[in-house]
Design goal:
Mean pLDDT: 88
Low-confidence stretches: 1-43
Helix content: 40-55%
Strand order of the largest sheet: 1-2-3-4
Number of helices: 18
Shape: globular
Radius of gyration: 24 Å
Length: about 525
Amino acid sequence: MAREGGDSFDETGRGVVMHDDGEGLRLGGWCWAKVEVPGSRNQKNTSVPTNWPVLGMLPRILQNSHRIHDFVTEILSELGGTFEFKGPWFCNMDMLVTCDPTNIHHIFSRNFSNYPKGPEFRKIFEILGDGIFNADFELWELHRRTTLSFMAHVKFYSLLETAAWHKVETGLLPVLDHFSEQGVDVDLQDIFQRFTFDSICKLVLDYDSRSLSIDLPYIPSEKAFNDVIEALLHRHVLPESIWKLQNWLRIGKERKLIEAWKAFDEFIYPIIDLSEGEGKDGFNLLKSFRKAYEVNNVSCLGDSRDFLRDTALSLMFAGRDTTSTCLTWLFWLLAANPSVEMTIRDEIETELHLKKDKKWRFFNVEESHKLIYLHGALCESLRLFPPVALEHKAPIRPDILPSGNYLHQNSRVIVSFYSTGRMETVWGNNCLEFKPERWISPRGGIKHEPSYKFPAFNAGPRTCLGKEMAFIQMKMVAATIMYHYNIELVEGHAVSPRDSIILQAKHGFRVRLSKRTV
């Protein structure tokens, strides 16, 4: 934080070396004069960073790295949705940051072929190898085609229902009952992460890790995701030379990334080897991609074992963190909006015909579509806290965005999905309010919003293939918990977004549970 006079302090109150005295940036005894850039302002209350000689705008970014998503949102709101960041000299960190829906539509849909993930993205996300998140062109088509074929199979939704309800019955309810009976608080975010990890492992690998059990076992590969997402954000903020040096020295967040990489390999490779000996029978994504690898002659593919590891890890990354993050913020928002919670409970009991028998029952995919107000609440959670906070793009040819910004070939573009959901120009002056009603049409159905306005599941051809699956699973979990338990926030426990690629709650989401009397 800052005090009058411009001196900067860290969160402990200790002074830091860097400060701005109004004349320039001082580091020790040196002072750099300010350099004006288009769109910057001289007023001290501006959020727009100053562009310093040599250092660029990096000092202000580092000062606000503990609240980077909100800081970027403030800048974009002040500048109309698009911001040109200037990095330190010779660090190749210049980039364009945008949350403008017209730019999102242009990049992700209208001019999609000009915006592959690009080489910079692959460097940052190298841990995902040749998985769908890193893939472009022919390889991306293979991933998309294989995944769509799997999800279109007649067995898919039956498998999804069976796997989800089995995990609810054998994992979720026993664990929550245990904490409710003991009267101790529980990290609900951790519970959701374990649930989705077990579920996605079953769908992708046909393997149940049983991380969601009463003793809450420590499984390195399940916890490794938390270290990865924080390290990946730092790779966006730090110069490439710095994070590569940290990786070489095995220090800082890069050390945790290396350890996470090892944990993933030790978990996934043995399952791949075991499945190879079981033949081609069975229905799971791993077997589908093994067959796709064998029948498609894709020149960029390497060893099949590595390809299957990269594929599985990317799908696990999507399945574990995105769904669990949405559920975490949903229940945090409901705790602050009890009237919304009451409306959802009434909908669950009415639409699932639970009021008469007063007895819980599992519901199928078709019945989940009747839970419209719950759907709206989930969309609001996704709008305010999109699990994937930002996307990284690079044009292969020069381009001019609808906002008027010129992009050179291979220049870096960061699209802030977090900021898009918090722009008054996009969602109105009540954009920070939790209002499930904004997702319900006048006829009482679900209101559709274009993906470039609501990019929680990405946008254009790269829209998440598991979107429908995610809503079904989230409704199953949310409805089960809301029907069975009252949730009380733990007093004094601060909940805020984590500074990472995935918008988890920074310190978890600790609550106390009590059984409801129905």
